[in-house]
Amino acid sequence: MTTILTFLLFTAAVALLTWWITRGKGTDTEEGFFLAGRSLTGLVIAGSLLLTNLSTEQLVGLNGGAFKEGLSVMAWEVVAGVSLVVLALFFLPRYLKSGIATIPQFLEERYGSGVRALTTGVFIVAYMFILLPFVLYSAAKALSAMLNLPELLGMSQFGTIWVIVAFVAIVGSGYAIFGGLRAVAVSDTFNGLGLLIGGLLITYFTLSHVGGDESFLSAFSKISEANPDAFNSISREGEDINGWAPLFTGVLLLNFFYWCTNQQIIQRTFGAKNLAEGQKGVLLAAFFKILAPLILVVPGIAAFYIANSDEGFKATLLNDAGEVDGGNVYGSLVRLVLPGPLTGFFAAVVMGSILSTFNSVLNSSATLFSLGVYKKAINPSASHKQVVRSGQVCSGVVALLSAIAAPLVFDGQEGIFEFFQSLNAVYFIPLLAIILVGMFTKWADGNSAIITAVTGLLIMIWGTFLGGDIVTKTFGSGYHFMGAVFAVLVFLQLLLAQFMKRETAYVQVDAKVVDLTPWKHAPLVGGCLIVTVLIIYAILSK
To answer: Fewer beta carbons below 10 Å: N end or C end of the chain?
Structure first.
């Protein structure tokens, strides 16, 4: 009961503080609702970036992956540091110069309205049936195990998942529908601090559990003795990310799209008060992403060691079919190593991270629909209030459909994080290709972009759902397949651009919405972060 009470009190406190800080801040205008009035500082941007990303998709997915494959899954976090540097130094100045609120807006400026319509639809559908369902499902798995909800509610694991999914969808919708991006970003900052503290506590208590009477640092030697490859940053044959090569093909490309061109992530950077603050926030987020394996990977590695020596703990990892389920690893570990009151606090922090990602994606979906569909095609003369209202309705519909899809799409999937990434690649790879070609060339027109994007979507759908054996035999890895498709799509669009050209060369116009003076230390800080990533891999590779 103490655990549940602590959970409810912390969750309510964050909601109350967020309301208090954002009350009367104006969400009745498009810019106020969707971009927080372009007033976000570096610290808030960093916290919002991290919390939008660091949800149960990472806590559950990556620790579950580390339970199975060891340290090599850190690639999803550490390589992200490089992508964020690229965002800060290359992409963000261009985005802020255009004064955009959405990526499809940028693509309309570059290619025309047809490309904007296509990409808007792709983003909304993908968020509704891939990203949000995964966030909800992983949330349900984590909270179910942490709070032992199946036993408390007297329900099966699957039934409990439906209950939690509904709860998160309802609460998360409240932030996004009534508070806009400002409420999302402020609540992210509170929850970010809690997640940082709580995540480090989980790592400390887990290592202390393994170390026993010795120092918690002795846990590393114990785990290494039992499994010499546990802390190898480069994976082995048969694992998801096998060797060095995937780091420079699919993993790098997925990271680039996610951190540099994905609407639900970078929308908070569009709300920066100026370029310098935006760059500070992005680079601060990059620093914490490089350190993220301490929270997102190490506990999963330790959990594998504990499971091999503690049958009681191993039993908590079983699903309804009596099989070890990686989705149960993190929640069961939290319940094992944390005292009751702290378990309630951390469950509330996890709930905060879940709500952060969920309401951020809802806000991004609303932004895409309201500015790209409603105001563009349905009601061009709509008032500011009508546009905001359309976004609120869109958020409600997306929340409902994603809640229905969550257990149906992901329940029973083995290696849910890897499955999630494969689904993301279906639209990540084609959209990244046309965005980069658009940035680096001046003459390719909208028709070349549409043909390239649709071709890429069809190839990726085939490779993901139908061509498994052929892809494996031909490319050896799904990540190499992604890299090959990306290269083919870039070549295809460049070829098409020889025949399908704009009437005039594209020249980006400064919308003059914020000060574009860069942070003078950004190149140096970015360079140091990239060198740090390379050093980490060099030290930990075997």
So the answer is: N
Largest Cα–Cα distance of the chain, in whole Å? 74
pTM given for the model: 0.82
Residues 6+ apart with CB under 8 A from 149: 143, 155, 160, 163, 164
176 secondary structure, DSSP code? H
In the three-class reduction of DSSP (H, G, I as helix; E, B as strand; rest coil), residue 497 is classed as: coil
Instruction: Give the model confidence (pLDDT) of 126-175 as tens digits.
Output: 988 988 888 888 878 878 887 778 887 788 878 888 888 888 788 767 65
Distance between CA atoms of 240 and 72, rounded to whole angstroms? 9
Q: How far apart are CA 431 and CA 436, in angstroms?
A: 9
Cα distance between residue 56 and residue 63, in whole Å = 10
DSSP class per residue in 233-274 = SSB-TTSSSBSSGGGGTHHHHHHHHHHHT-HHHHHHHHTBSB
Residue 86 and residue 81: Cα distance in Å, rounded? 9
- Percentage of the chain with pLDDT > 70? 86
Give residue-wise pLDDT tens across range 352-368. Answer: 777 777 777 787 788 78
For tokens 């309401």, name the residue. 359
Amino acid found at 387: V
Main-chain phi, psi angles of 324, to 5 degrees: -65, 125
For residue 114, the tally of other CB atoms under 10 A from its CB is 15
Domain 2-540 bears CATH identifier 1.20.1730.10: yes
Q: Is 415 left (phi over 0), alpha (psi -120 to 50) or beta?
A: left
Structure tokens at 186: 């402020």
Residue 338: left if φ>0, alpha if ψ -120 to 50, beta else—which one? beta
d(CA 39, CA 22): 12
Q: Where are the domains of the chain?
A: 2-540
